[in-house]
Design goal:
Elements (H helix, E strand, L loop, with lengths): L5 H17 L10 H5 L3 H14 L10 H13 L6 E4 L10 H8 L6 E4 L3 H10 L4 E6 L5 H14 E9 L5 H14 L2 E2 L9 E3 L8 E3 L2 E4 L16
Parallel strand pairs: 1-2, 3-4
Antiparallel strand pairs: 4-8, 5-8, 6-7
Helix pairs in contact: 1-4, 3-4, 6-7, 7-8
């Protein structure tokens, strides 16, 4: 168990600050890879604050910016048995364990479980195992069908009334998948959750309007299955 005290939280903040300033110790051989992939520090702060308010357990890791913010939230909340379930099939190979090593440096490995499988395989296994969570952070594949499948399983894992936070909501594939769950399954956006965060032009088109990079949605309580006759185009 991670203690909810100033020293534990400060250790995580120190690692987060070093990551934001210096970048990770290892990156892929691509220009500005870390800056492109990672969640910006301000958005991480907003994610942390949102999860603290929800007393959340969550999912997601690449270069560990968002995972560190999630871990900080769990420490601040001080849950009796905090648990951070992380799905990343590329952590060891593609990312050279950069994110996991940073989590360990922050002292978060006792509460973190890394599942090195694609989310389409890992999430149904978690459903079968009875995992429940107060919230989930989604930053996986941006292909429409894969985002849709992630959200399908997360609506079972995340408790009724819980949160699903989406990264890169400015991409058409992600926005379209999310829109189905809003139109047909009663998910509702929390409009101000990331109002002070990074903004991106929709579809990457500088002529288009901009939206927050991250978006938080609340699941309905109670949950429901709509009649198939009531399908709403999305």
């Amino acid at each position: 168990m991670v203690r909810s005290d100033h020293r534990a939280a400060q250790q995580i903040r120190d690692v987060r600050r070093r990551l934001a300033v210096q970048g990770p110790p290892r990156t892929r051989d691509r220009g500005r890879d870390f800056e492109t992939v990672t969640l910006p520090e301000r958005d991480c702060d907003l994610l942390r604050d949102l999860l603290v308010s929800e007393r959340a357990e969550t999912v997601g890791l690449a270069y560990a910016s968002s995972a560190l913010a999630i871990g900080e939230a769990l420490v601040i909340v001080g849950l009796p048995h905090p648990r951070h379930v992380i799905i990343d099939p590329f952590q060891e190979g593609v990312w050279s364990n950069a994110g996991w090593d940073l989590l360990c440096a922050a002292g978060l490995d006792p509460i973190a479980t890394l599942i090195p499988e694609p989310s389409s395989i890992a999430l149904p296994q978690l459903v079968a195992g009875g995992l429940t969570a107060e919230a989930a952070f989604v930053d996986g594949s941006h292909r429409f069908h894969e985002v849709f499948v992630d959200l399908y399983f997360l609506r079972t894992i995340v408790r009724p009334g819980g949160l699903v936070v989406i990264d890169d909501d400015w991409t058409p594939s992600v926005r379209t998948a999310v829109h189905y769950y809003e139109q047909n399954l009663g998910w509702t956006a929390i409009p101000d959750a990331f109002a002070g965060g990074t903004r991106m032009p929709i579809g990457g088109d500088p002529r288009a309007g901009s939206v927050p990079r991250c978006r938080a949605l609340r699941l309905p309580d109670p949950s429901f299955e709509p009649p198939f006759e009531e399908f709403c185009p999305f």
